[in-house]
Amino acid sequence: MQTSSNVRLAQLTSRGGRPQEEIRPASAAPGRPPQTAADLILPGEALEQVSSTCSGSPPLRPADTAARPYQSEGLAGGRYGALKTALNGLGGVYVHIPFCFHKCHYCDFYSIVDPRRPRAFVRRLIEEVTAISAYVRAPLETIFIGGGTPTLLPVDLLADLLGAIADRLPRRPDAEFTVEANPETVTAPLVEVLAEGGVNRVSIGAQSFDPRHLKALERWHEPASVERSVDLVRSAGIDNINLDLIFAIPGQTLGDWLADLDEALRLEPSHLSCYGLMYEPNTPLTARLRAGRIRRVDEELEAAMYEATLDRLAGAGFEHYEISNWARPGRRCRHNLLYWTNRQWWPLGPSAAGHVAGTRWKNVPNLGAYLKHRPWPPIQDVERLDDDGRAGEELMLGLRLIDGIARDRLEALLALGRRGGERAAAIEGHVDGGRLEERGGRLRLTRTGLLLADSVLADLV
Ligand code: SF4
After folding, report:
1. From the CB of 147, is ligand 1 less than 6 Å away?
2. Do residues 203 and 171 make contact, with C-beta atoms less than 8 angstroms apart?
C-alpha cells in the first residue's frame, strides 16, 4: 500500500547530495559495487576461500557462494563481518509482495499487475527466506509483509509463505507480525490463513470512505469493503488493526475529511496512519495535475485538515506518536518504530529496502531479475553513511517521533561529523521561532513545527 512503512521510509531517508560511501565487497574488483545481498553478508575472504577449494571450477560469483555454508566464523572480522554479526541484532524483516490488481493513480511504489507469476514468485521468496534464516539467530521483534497487495496472493501460496516464515525465522513470543491488506481482497479463508500463520496485526488500506475521493485516487475498492474487512479480521481473532487514510485529496473539503475520520473511528481500529496526498513524479495523478485536470488542495486547507486530525484523534483517546501515526495505548507500530529509531531490518523481495550495521540498500525493483537471481536478490543504492550523514539521519527520523530526542542523545549527535555547529544553530533558530521546543529533557516538534515538519527536518539532515 502506498502509505505503508516502506514507501514512507524511502521518502524519509532520501539523502540526495549528502556525503556517502559506496561500499564494495573485499573481493570485488575496484569500482565494482555489491551485486547481490550475499555480497553484504559474506566477507570477501570467504569468497576467496570458497574459490580456492574449487580448483578447475569457473570463478564463483557471490550469488553462487551464497548457497554454500559459511566458511569460517573467524572470517566474521572481515569488512562485512560487522554486517553479518549485526544480523543477530536484527529487529525485524520487511517482505515486499509486488502484485496489485490495479495501479492506483497516486502510487509510485513498485508493484505490477500480473496475475500469472505469484506461484513462481512465492517459491522464489521462500528461497530467500531460507537463505537469510542461516544468519538470523536471535528472535525477531517484528515481521511486516507489505506491498503491493500481499492479500492478493492465492490463499494456498500465502499459507506456504507464512509457514516458511514461521519455520525458518525465529521470532519472539510477543513479536508483532503485520500483513497489509486491500479491503477488496479480504475473505474468510484469507483471514483464517493469516491467523493460523501467526499474523497478529493487519493494516488495511482504506484511504477514504467517500466514493468520489476513492475515484479521484483511482483506488479500486468499495467503501463498504473496509468495514467488512475489519469484521472478518476481528472474527479470526486478530484485533490489532490499522487503517491507512489519505487527506488533501483533490476536491476534498474539511468536512469530507472529518467524515472520513469519524467513519474510521466508528470501526474502532487500534491504529491510524493519516498521510497528506503526495504527488510523486511519474504517476498518473501528477500527470493529471500538470495537465490542469485536477487542482491541488491549497496549503491552508491541508494544514486545517491536519490540525483537525490532531484534535479529533486526541479527543478519541489516540496517542499521537509520529507525525502521521496515531495509536491506542500499547498499539504503536513496532515495525515502523524500527525505522524511526534507526534500528536494523532485513529486506526480502524485489524493491524492499533494508538497514543493517549502518549500511542501507534496496533490492532491485524488477520481478524478472528477482526470479532469475537466486537465492539472493540483486541490489542497488548501497550506501554507508559517514558520521555526518548518520547524525543527520538520526535527527531527522528521531524528530518525526512526537517524543522527540533526549537531550544527551542530541548532544552526542551534534558532536558527530562536521555539521554539528550548523545544525545546533538551525535548532536554535527553530526553537526561537516556536517550531521546536525542549520539554522534559527532550527536543521535539511543537504543534506549529508539526505543520512545517518537512522544512524543519530538512534543515537538520
Ligand atoms: S494497492 Fe494501490 S497504492 Fe497500494 S501498492 Fe497497489 S497500486 Fe500502490
Report:
1. yes
2. no
